[in-house]
Amino acid sequence: MDSVKNRRGRPKATDLSYQDTQEALLQAGVIWLTQSGFQGTGLEPMLRSVQVPKGSFYHYFESKELFALAVLQRYRSFFEAKLDRYLLDETLPPLTRLRNFIESAKAGMEKYAFKRGCLVGNLEQEATVLPESIRQAVLDTYQSWQNKVADCLTLAQEQGLIDEHADVKALAHVFWVGWEGAVARARLTRSSSPLLQFEKFYLAGLPR
């Protein structure tokens, strides 16, 4: 009987399924890029962490750039589901929803001893050396997140919680600029203090 040789880099039939291995790579990618960013994530140590041979990586992703884009999309989907869980909670006033999101994110950073920040924020700090496709994907992600916060602030306007003439799109933009800065400083200081200060001054500074 003739045997069919595996293509170079293709996992054997006895290995994990294609989907299982791809999923393991994406999960590892989220962890590594959240901790180390694009430039700081080496393929070899990441692949060792999930026991995938380096030669097999390119069977799942054609390049590190395309891998990072897939990881970013995975992280974006996860994070937007989290945003929706808090910002669309109709049992609470809009500004309480925003505060609860901040508290949840703070707890997440504390859980991992401030070693993990925001994957998107990490990529933003590498903007000058990122492939254009990733830079644009980061911008698109921020725009989506800003829209969600703007919708929450619009509801706060409708309920008379902030000034009806306030520019909610600008306020949402400022939220993410300030939040990512607070996350970066929290990692640097290994402290929740920057997050708490941001929460205090952002919410207090909303036009009433």
TrEMBL record:
Which residues form the DNA-binding region? 42-61
Please name the InterPro entries in this protein's record. Answer: Homeodomain-like_sf, HTH_TetR, Tet_transcr_reg_TetR-rel_C_sf, TetR_C
Question: Keyword Hydrolase, does the record have it?
Answer: no
Q: Does the keyword Transcription regulation apply?
A: yes
Looking at the record, the residues that make up the HTH tetR-type domain are 19-79
List the Pfam families hit by this protein, alphabetically.
TetR_C_13, TetR_N
GO terms assigned for molecular function: DNA binding
Listed name of the protein:
TetR family transcriptional regulator
Species per Swiss-Prot/TrEMBL record? Marinomonas communis
